[in-house]
Amino acid sequence: QVQLVESGGGLVQAGGSLRLSCAASGISFSVNTWGWYRQAPGKQRELVAQINNGGSTNYQDSVKGRFTISRDNAKNTVNLQMSSLKPEDTAVYHCAAGRDDRVRVLGYAGMDYWGKGTLVTVSS
Description:
Blueprint: E1 3-7, E2 10-13, E3 18-25, E4 33-39, E5 46-52, E6 57-59, E7 67-72, E8 77-82, E9 91-98, H1 100-106, E10 111-114, E11 118-123
């Protein structure tokens, strides 16, 4: 059974940092792309950062230079280091996994597996 479990969310002041971690288990060998998405109240789910098994990364423009996604293959985790946080970064952050060919065509709808999310709140 596939499981993605996020941790590391919380309340932080603007300008602060948080590190999110996603622990994966039972993942199929066909999975080659991992991502962090976020959804704020009343807004659409959006891609924050993505990494594939080759190490290539992709970031939403608003987080470039502030967030870093990484993958620890030995521990089967995907991490998101967030710095210089802003109130507009407040959202529920979800970890996701899927196949690159599907995600390129379908966006987040192409991700096969999702965690339940962790709440990040940035106060001004």
